[in-house]
Amino acid sequence: MARVNENFLKLKAGYLFPEIGRRVKAFTESEPEKAKRLIRCGIGDVTEPLPGAAREAMKSAVDELGVRETFRGYGPEQGYEFLRKAIVDNAFNGFGIEAGEIFVSDGSKCDTGNILDIFGDGLRIAITDPVYPVYVDTNVMAGNTGEADESGRFGGLVYLPCTAENNFEPALPEEPVDLIYLCFPNNPTGTVATRAQLEKWVAYAREHEAVILFDAAYESFIQGTEIPHSIYEIDGARECAIEFRSFSKNGGFTGVRCAYTVVPKDLMGTTQGGEKVALHGLWARRQSTKFNGVSYPVQRAAEALFSV
Ligand SMILES: Cc1ncc(COP(=O)(O)O)c(C=O)c1O
Predict the structure, then answer these.
(1) Closest atom of ligand 1 to CA, residue 110
(2) Were 43 and a residue from 2, 17, 260, 284 both cysteine, which residue would form a disulfide, CB within 3.0 to 4.6 Å?
(3) Which of 108, 191, 242, 258 most suits a substitution to test ligand 1, by most atoms within 8 Å of the C-beta?
(4) Among 230, 226, 251, 254, which residue's Cα sits nearest to residue 242?
(5) Please, what are the domains in the chain?
(6) Atom number in ligand 1 closest to CA 259
(7) 302 and 47 Cβ atoms separated by less than 8 Å
(8) Confidence tier at 19 by pLDDT (50, 70, 90)
(9) What's the ipTM?
């Protein structure tokens, strides 16, 4: 008998964004006048087309693929060296990150979901509230939660409220946790994290041997010069944080698909028996088994974004 993963059945209303889309459509059809004033909080998208540099790089990469001498088939699962080097030189210059710690992928959505593959069961997980729904739903699918209550919050997760009262700044968990999802600049609140706030999180994670999953998909929206762009600007973050970055927002790549995850080689997890294991090796193993890399033209286009 093909038994199903019953954790999926806890996700009653389907993924949030299609559900919002369905409800907006129904409301627009039944209340066309009121719908003109509707503020849409569903999935957003970029408003600008692809930059010329990315298009040109993609076109010439496609031409290379049409010539026997320059054709490329399967690429390295972790991404081509040229892109990983461009990422380190441009996005992490001076933050102590090396090209071998960059894993190029087809999206931060997949990466923030798939990362749970390398963590064990029964972890205590802290999630800011409100939050990008992928973090919650993937934990539900992985069996890391109980059922949802009437407010839609799942048993077993440690929710960290972000409200006007606390200036949308999540407080440290009152109970010890093992995994912490942070997203700055934040979706959906738009809040950025100061250096002092990130230092507080890094200190907490190191004290509790927790791992921070730092989603910086909106990094390019940071304007204040004092606001860190990467968690690795904070001393000690290499030992406690994984960072997710995406070309979706800064390059208009929501349809093209390219992102990357940074897993420092110093970052350790722990086995049940107390042995330390490098998360870098586990993620490399996971990606090389379940992922075959981003296409060559897309990686060339992503590289070209650093020239814009
Ligand atoms: C917080 C956050 N992380 C990740 C993503 C997804 O990024 P990608 O397009 O690289 O999958 C989004 C998309 O809206 C997002 O809001």
Answers:
(1) 11
(2) 17
(3) 108
(4) 230
(5) 1-44 (no CATH), 52-305 (3.40.640.10)
(6) 10
(7) no
(8) confident
(9) 0.99
